[in-house]
Amino acid sequence: MSRSTSTYHHGNLRPVLLAAALDLLETQSAAALSLREVARRAGVSHNAPYHHFGDRSGLLAAAGAEAMRQLVAAQRAAYEAEADPRDALVALGVAYVEWAVAHPGAFGVIYDPEICAPGAPSETMAPLIAANEELLSAAIAATDPRPDGTTGRAAELAAREAGAWGSVHGLAALVTAGHLPRAAVRPALESLFPRS
Question: What Gene3D superfamilies does this protein's entry cite (predicted)?
Fold first, then answer.
């Protein structure tokens, strides 16, 4: 029995194709990704991806969701490994940048507005985006000693979340493009989130 028949028969072809796409994104951008190459990498017929993803956009959307799941998991693991709230926040940011640098193609897919339209995520991506936002929100709130309901606290926390995400995402873009060394990330984040 051929690999493609066996894989398809056991119902594992979709994750195999998705893994092949993410593997290819390790060395190329989403713009260069072809369904034919994904099928070749997975060892199946060139038509197989169409049966599971519809088209290239469907495959990229699924790859973006899987990449986001991995990014959230990496951040959560780094965050939960630290007891001190400030250290946990820094670790969260470092994990974001490190994951982006290690997986630039997949990271690009997550934030490609043609794949995941801002404000209109897919049913698969929406809960992942929410989980990422909740993680950042919890990390920022944990570094603010004021109790909930303090006047202006919610607005200030929202502003800090936006600033933190923008800073970390900018660091990820700069390091990935080679404009900053990886060693600059932790000191930069420590300066952004000083100890109180």
Answer: Tetracycline Repressor, domain 2 (1.10.357.10)
**Residue 118 burial (10 A CB sphere; 0-12, 13-18, 19+):** exposed
pLDDT, average across residues 90-119:
94
Q: Which amino acid is at 148?
A: D
| pLDDT exceeds cutoff 80 at 149 | no
- Please tell me whether residue 106 adopts helix, strand or coil conformation: helix
72 and 160 in a single domain? The answer is yes
Q: Which ranges of 26-116 would DSSP assign to H, the alpha helix?
A: 35-42, 48-53, 56-80, 85-102, 104-110
Q: What is the pTM of this model?
A: 0.86
Distance CA 186, CA 95 (A): 10
Q: In this structure, are 83 and 33 located in the same domain?
A: no
pLDDT digits (tens, 9 = 90+) for 67-79: 999 999 999 999 9
Residue 124 has which token pair? 């698969």
CATH number for position 42: 1.10.10
Clarify whether residues 73 and 159 are in a common domain.
Answer: yes
Domain co-membership, 67 together with 43: no
How many separate domains does the chain show? 2
